[in-house]
Amino acid sequence: MVWHVFNRSIAEYQIFNTPADYKRFITAMDFYRYNNKNKISLSNLLYFDKDLIFNKNERFIKINSYCIMPNHYHVIVDDNDSNLLSKYISNLENSYTRYFNIKHKRKGPLWESRYKKIPVTKNEYFIHLTRYIHLNPVTAYICSKPEEYEYSSYKEFLSNQEDICDFKYLMPEDFESKIYKDFVEDRISYQRELNKIKNLIFD
Q: Phi and psi for 95 in degrees, rounded to 5?
């Protein structure tokens, strides 16, 4: 089953402040999708190299797309009907909480609540969802174009080269990176306007 998973920090507190913070979370996303029960836990590491070596033979989660924002994250994952999604997200969030609390000498929870998950039941929905996710930093006016943002899977989609993500099997057969780029960027103004309306409603 493919899932859109997301969560936000307590009181929308900014929990990703430096490139090292984003790198820590993204590397943990990669690490915990494999069976590393006999390997060192990232929860015990404050800093580590991106090229940390771990067992990549037993993957039980596929990461399809992601975007890490200053106070929340979005990730689309495929758990292959393994029922291990909860374990994966728990490892990911607990690991980052421990890292953040040690770094900032604080205690207590970091996340607003239990993560939210929404099933992605059709491949047609997947491409639209990735567009929404990849436009998050543009919608928040962090950057003007999504390719300027370093902490999402957008550049993998543009290069059509899978690194952390597996996305090609969910995309249309005629998928081309240039078509996808136009598909995403044509929506920038519209998504920004929708966000303004949403903020007006909830303010």
A: -65, -45
